[in-house]
Amino acid sequence: MPAIELSGVAKSYGGGDHAVRNLDLVVPDGAFMCLLGPSGCGKTTTLRMIAGLEQPSAGTIAVGGRVLDSVEQGVYVPPEKRGMGLVFQSYALWPHLSVRENVEFGLRMRKVPAPERRSRAEAALKMVHVFDAMDRYPSQLSGGQQQRVALARMLAVDPEVLLLDEPLSNLDARLRLEMRAELKRIHEESGATIVFVTHDQLEALTMATHVAVMNQGELQQLAPPMEMYARPANRFVAEFVGSPAMAIVEATVEATVDAGPAPGGLAASLLAHVQGHDRAAAFGIRPEALHLGTPPPGAWSGPATVEAVLPAGASWTVRLRVLDTELFAVTHTPVEAAPGDTVTCWTDQLHLFDAAGLRLPALDNNVAARA
Ligand SMILES: Nc1ncnc2c1ncn2[C@@H]1O[C@H](COP(=O)(O)OP(=O)(O)OP(=O)(O)O)[C@@H](O)[C@H]1O
What we know:
Radius of gyration: 25 Å
Number of helices: 10
CATH architecture of the largest domain: 3-Layer(aba) Sandwich
CATH class of the largest domain: Alpha Beta
Bound molecules: adenosine-5'-triphosphate
Mean pLDDT: 89
Oligomer: single chain
CATH superfamily of the largest domain: P-loop containing nucleotide triphosphate hydrolases
Helix content: 25-40%
Distance between the termini: 40 Å
Strand order of the largest sheet: 7-8-9-3-10-11
Low-confidence stretches: 365-371
Structural class: alpha+beta
């Protein structure tokens, strides 16, 4: 299966601001890559450029070593000659064709003989579990079934590259979860190279083999999902990936009001804990890395007042006032403390960022390795 390589890719619409800037991105052979980021960060533009639906303003896109776009070399291969499968948010099934005919449509266009069309369509419909609805029309299907038919239509063609733009966004929570598992299975079975656009960090973490986080047209980090979660490259990624979000505690204040962190406050306490690491400008604490109880040796700990306990069945979220700062802790064991109680909280993983918001890895090893 082909790898997709973007080098120095940029896109501006009508000479306006850049929707994508200087993007270097390699989607390895057989990867399931999620492009993740807030609305307007350039994810869809990137996907559309890979599909050939938009032409880059600069840079090169190559798939399997074949250059499909190069502004410098004047190369542009149109979408229909790229052999990629596309599924967009609106699934655009033909309303006057049955499910089977919709799925066979792409094969008919490729002049695949009827018996083979039939068997490939049936296999694809089985794969997404809508085989039984084969003779119905799109209007007789639920949103989730229509979504699956759109996927089947793409899978029947058996493309080596699948491009998906928020294809699960119209589904309810339960069906989304089911389809995530389904897509993951389809990826493993087909071995295709997949690029999947989403603004949902959970979707990216659960499905992808690689996640590329974008913000304002720029790549922030490219990493396997758990690596990104454990070691976000900067504050943007740290706060965007994870729910509830990582709490950020500023260790420094603006130079103009430079009184340093409040004495006796959380920032001062954390700074004292990482003494000697004077480049630390902010600390990050994930809710599940903040614990109640007796700390192990070497961990940072401090007094906290319990403000609220929010049980959610399998987990408990606790709002704490830690010195001068409000933080959330998430635990999977029952919380005995009640609002108003004073407890000891501690963390086994502190993330440190410098003044530019970049992760400080050397400090990370010193501090986080104590877990
Ligand atoms: N056809 C267009 N003409 C002009 N500007 C566009 C066009 N398409 C996108 N943009 C702009 O480019 C930027 C990136 O848009 P893009 O759709 O790629 O972002 P996105 O991350 O996919 O967002 P969303 O999640 O909301 O779809 C935005 O500022 C958007 O307004």
